[in-house]
Write a structure and sequence with these properties.
single chain; alpha+beta; 7-stranded antiparallel sheet
Length: 443
């Protein structure tokens, strides 16, 4: 006879968290992740041992991902490179902008060289005094980035991203700045996105001036990367008036200065959602292939770092998306913000042994049913009911344990973005179809 599992039983089991999760920090070189996990009672284990969470710097190998057990999680989705590589992000945003010019106008005009060089030439011939910022397609920490007012000197054969430089940014105490906005994708089926209410504000270390031929090479004036500006003797380590501050400090400043900070953050949330939509078809397709056995809770989550810049009118611009945001703690403010972020993330995701115990029980019950040749539909119906119960309980848990996160996308507001999902899926299909036909014609 089928054993009925009620919502109350699941709730009671979830509340008995005697044994915390085992976490494997494979290739993780951030000591703060280790420290937070230990402080929360998690067990640090080796790859060959039994683990519940696999934390690594890069996405798990697809072969290994397919063998994940039903209770195990990893901290990366496969397919996120569609927005985390600068060239892929530019291509996807430019594609969506052709259909939604006014809705996808939060990205500086961008050309992917050398393939877009002809279009770039057309633009510079019509706009003689513009300034451009050039970036390597896979670079980080400001490496290889430069600004120029002489676009004809750009090497057209080198694989680079060239963007129109935002020459009128909003200034903080006279300095250019950008924000590292931490975003958690808690699941992709259904898609659920949280944005952290705190984060980092990175300031340049020389007072800002409009780009000219004389100052265009001043990296301390035009670049906000911490790895660049920490080398300047003018760098100040102070939470309230230094070269790196908290987003909460910035929000208070915006409010004090009379800016509509609520409107600004609503627009930033919108930018984040629309950007993640670009990667969703790739992420979800891979997820369904690799993790079809995860019936109850998501197999993956992802903390992304969105770099956002405000112009003088407080319009947010997306600069890039980091799939592995830096968790180094060089400064005191890094330690505070990143520790709180990790604690709230682990709490929200409810990382404990509950699911492992439940899945083991379900597998044992399934084996018993197979032994007596029970109707297969019995197990399917039970699995469905358990999944629904778990979803309800997970939603309840998350609503009470968001910490400093805010939920910006779920099934409740998905209808507002439905047309973007549909258009993006269609564009991907057309691109795939054209590529296949081209390959066939070459045979």
């Amino acid at each position: 006879m089928e054993k009925t599992i009620s919502v109350q039983q699941i709730t009671e089991e979830k509340n008995i968290i005697q044994k915390k999760a085992a976490i494997c920090l494979q290739n993780c070189n951030y000591s703060i992740v280790h420290d937070v996990a230990v402080s929360m009672g998690m067990h640090i284990v080796k790859p060959e041992e039994s683990w519940d969470l696999w934390w690594c710097n890069i996405p798990m190998d697809i072969k290994k991902a397919k063998h994940l057990k039903k209770y195990q999680k990893t901290n990366h989705f496969l397919g996120m490179s569609e927005i985390c590589r600068k060239d892929s992000l530019a291509r996807n945003l430019n594609t969506m902008a052709t259909s939604f010019r006014d809705d996808y106008n939060f990205y500086p005009m961008t050309w992917y060289l050398p393939s877009d060089y002809t279009k770039f030439q057309t633009y510079i011939n019509q706009h003689k005094n513009s300034t451009y910022i050039v970036k390597p397609t896979t670079g980080s920490r400001g490496t290889g980035i430069y600004i120029t007012k002489s676009p004809k000197k750009i090497n057209q054969y080198e694989h680079m991203i060239c963007q129109l430089y935002i020459s009128k940014p909003l200034l903080l105490d006279g300095y250019k700045f950008d924000m590292r906005v931490y975003t958690l994708i808690a699941s992709c089926d259904p898609l659920k996105i949280y944005v952290y209410n705190d984060g980092l504000v990175r300031l340049a270390t020389e007072p800002y001036e409009t780009p000219t031929q004389n100052n265009v090479n001043d990296r301390y004036m035009h670049l906000t990367n911490y790895s660049v500006n920490k080398c300047n003797k003018m760098y100040i380590d102070n939470e309230l008036f230094g070269s790196k501050r908290r987003i909460t400090t910035l929000s208070n400043w915006l409010h004090t200065e009379g800016y509509d900070d609520k409107k600004i953050w609503n627009e930033i949330d919108d930018v984040i959602i629309k950007t993640i939509i670009l990667a969703y078809p790739f992420v979800n397709r891979t997820y369904q292939t690799c993790f079809s056995g995860h019936k109850y809770t998501p197999a993956c989550f992802e903390i992304l770092g969105f770099d956002i810049l405000l112009d003088e009118n407080c319009k947010p611009y997306l600069l890039e998306v980091n799939h592995a945001p830096d968790f180094h703690t060089d400064t005191s403010i890094d330690k505070i913000v990143k520790r709180e972020l990790l604690i709230d993330t682990f709490n929200l995701l409810q990382l404990n042994k509950t699911l492992k115990k439940f899945v083991s029980g379900e597998e044992k019950w399934k084996t018993q049913q197979q032994t007596i040749n029970a109707d297969k539909n019995v197990y399917k119906q039970r699995t469905l009911r358990c999944k629904e119960n778990f979803e309800r309980q997970n939603n309840l848990w998350e609503s009470k344990n968001m910490g400093n996160y805010r939920l910006v996308f779920s099934e409740k507001n998905a209808h507002l973005y439905k047309h973007y999902f549909y258009c993006n899926e269609s564009a991907i299909y057309r691109h795939t179809r054209r590529t296949s036909l081209h390959q066939e014609s070459e045979k």
